[in-house]
Amino acid sequence: xxxxxxxxxxxxxxxxxxxxxxxxxxxxxxxxxxxxxxxxxxxxxxxxxxxxxxxxxxxxxxxxxxxxxxxxxxxxxxxxxxxxxxxxxxxxxxxxxxxxxxxxxxxxxxxxxxxxxxxxxxxxxxxx
Length: 128
Fold this sequence. Notes:
alpha+beta, Endonuclease I-creI, 4 strands
């Protein structure tokens, strides 16, 4: 049985969820494991799994995102730089599911279906 939350604790979690949802909607994204590649390469050759990635504009925002994720019960991965921004991953299929459910309930993110890879463009010499 789960412990009961007080009204103030529930309100605090709702505020955290709302803020995480705003960051996610701004420029966060979900990476899904590619089942075809996993079947082809096996676990030893393809260790990528599902993850949510949030983007921070600077180190101060990165620290704030880490704190929000921890307050919401998530364990963020190691942040990394990409371009002039920082990415903060949350790894694991169940963590992704929980995160999406949390931000969807807060009303700041649309349900996210697994994304299909973009179609490959033909590279021919024809004028198109």
